[in-house]
Amino acid sequence: MTATVHDVAILSDFRYPGGTSASIAAEVRAQARAGLTTVLVHVRSPHLKRDRPFHPLITELIRDSSAYLAAEGEDVAARLLVVRQPRIFTEDLPVRPKVAAGRSVMVLNQAPGDAGDPARYYDFAEVRTRVESLFGAGIEWAPISPQVRAEVLRSEPEAILTGVDWHEVIDGSEWWAEHVPRDGAPVIGRHGRADPVKWPRTGEELLQAYPDLPDVKVRILGGGELAVERLGRTPANWEIIGFGTCEPAEFLRGLDFFVYFHDPDLIEAFGRTIMEAMAAGVPVIVGEHFRPLFGDAALYTTPEGVLPLVRELWADRGRYRSVCLRGREFIEARYGYGSHLARLAARGIRPDAPPPPALAPPQPPPPRGVLLVSDNGVGLGHLSRLMAIGRRLPGDAPAVVATQSHGAMVAHREGFLTEYIPSRSVLGLARQSWTELLRSRLEHLIDLHRPAVVAVDSVPHDGIVAAARSRPGVRWVWVRRPMWRRGTGAEWIERRQAFHHILEPGEFAAAADEGPTVDDRDGVHTVRPITYLDAAELITRTEARTALELDPDRPAALLQLGAGNINDISSPAARIARHLRDADFQVVLAESAIACEPMPPVPGAHVVRVYPISRYLRGFDLVVSASGYNSFHELIAFGIPAVFVPNRETALDDQVSRARFAAAAGAALIVEDPDGDDLDRVLARAVRADVRDALSSRCAEVAPGNGAADAADWLTALTALT
What we know:
Elements: E1 5-12, H1 19-33, E2 38-42, H2 56-63, E3 68-69, E4 76-84, E5 99-108, H3 124-135, E6 140-143, H4 146-155, E7 187-191, H5 203-209, E8 217-221, H6 224-231, E9 238-241, H7 248-252, E10 257-260, H8 272-279, E11 284-286, H9 291-294, E12 299-300, H10 306-314, H11 317-335, H12 337-345, E13 370-374, H13 381-390, E14 399-403, H14 408-413, E15 417-420, H15 424-427, H16 431-449, E16 453-457, H17 462-470, E17 475-479, H18 490-493, E18 501-504, E19 524-526, H19 541-548, E20 556-560, H20 570-582, E21 586-590, E22 605-608, E23 622-625, H21 629-637, E24 642-644, H22 655-664, E25 669-670, H23 678-686, H24 689-702, H25 708-719
Parallel strand pairs: 1-2, 1-4, 2-3, 4-5, 5-6, 7-8, 7-10, 8-9, 10-11, 11-12, 13-14, 13-16, 14-15, 16-17, 17-18, 18-19, 20-21, 20-23, 21-22, 23-24, 24-25
């Protein structure tokens, strides 16, 4: 007698009380509705110590013949085997399952560990060895979410995973209920199994997310006793309902907001209860880390932001309803049964009859653009170079800026979608903690924005290298400015293999470059020096002077000596301003847009704080400037007479050699020692009109042009290759 060949075999422990069993039940329902047959193969998980029955949803599937339960030791044949819950394989199984399948998938529906211990729940390599010994080396390894994918790759960087997540599915029609805001206090709540890590760690955050206030009601289905224990009391406005005493769909109909926050160390595999709430039409408020899964359909904040968001939405009934509908539509389109049938079909499992029509036609994927990642919490140079490239990318290659610079708001004001990543110095973190945070944040941004290219204007910190390894499906580009100080940075050059490509902005003073990048040329794509603006974008002398409130009939000088975050610029600024005032110059002091502290007053100087200051350069007869990459090349490119006062305290940038080269080329003057007589001697020359005219003329002869558009074109070409 020939054994029955089922369409799908699902192997798991069907006693799990939470999302694992609910997810299995949803997939079986989708398969049964499409006319596909399912056999369930039960194995006992070693970490479920207490004896317990099958989950009620699994029992119901067996009773109504949606699935067939194989007897222990029975030979099972299926076209596709789906294995769920890797923790089952943390020990050898007492009995080897007898399953023969054409294809096999291991669904990784739990991360190996959490933020504190990457292997707290299972050792991926150990589990892989056991699973492959049971089901063959050809089994697919499918994470359930970007979070699980990232954690698996953190524990095993060489793991080969499916390109697409095996996400959860749900039948929205079984959950939906029209939600009309009622009069009175809004009801916020949550449901789920009892687990301490499923709750905020501190009592303060717990009460921020689930307030103890008379104008808000809180309802909790499952786990509420843990929250009460953590608080040491039961708030008067809380209603605690025992897990399993009420169906989740019925419970959700009594909520106005679903709010879910958990312990910061927990790596939430997916968030099925969040999906259920959205399917039920309840507005969902969660942490930002869920955005890769739920996009714009959920509302994101911190525990502290819950109450203001609830009150804001409760007062706007039209917006409230739109959030309800948006969540339902998103769940139907992204996580409906049709998405599960599509992934089965991709593995050759198709029903004899056509499947029911999809709830919504598949949408074409959005264009994949460029994620521009800048380093440095103290300067604007990295960020400005990337924005110079980003503003020249075509519309079908959208740019997102992710920066550690205090200038994140500058990028936002310039029209970029901007993500701020606080630097290590701002957060005061230990190196390893900072590495993990940077890696995690970059992975999240890549999963969220789906760029084809990540362009990093930074040295390759450990967190950047780790993120590049965990997200190999995008092209990583190191935007590496040259002119490093001699004898520095060799350790960064050694990490170039983390990137697919290197893009090098040009350097006017390249002939004087003695840094380590000079000898590292293989595969480096070079462009002309990059400036934020082209010459045609500068406003006229009259317009600039009007905007800056300068006397049109007197010479004017601009002082831009940097952010003041690396070296002390106040003393040289005062001396320079005094010398220029004595020569009848109007003095404008450019305060950096990211200066941590306001500059001390400089007598007779008018302070401006604008970005980009280069737009106003034609309004000045002279500029006294540090010789950082951006300001140096702007002044040379736009023919502005300049005196460079190089910053000698930078970690990598060789401002001294750059300024010396410009002076030797006759394109600028240099003050080698701002604390000595050199300052007065150089400024005495700079205030002379004939000297300034000669500097402008020389700049016109040697100006190299702007390579920002060329860099943008090159990155755009890379997006087409991904």
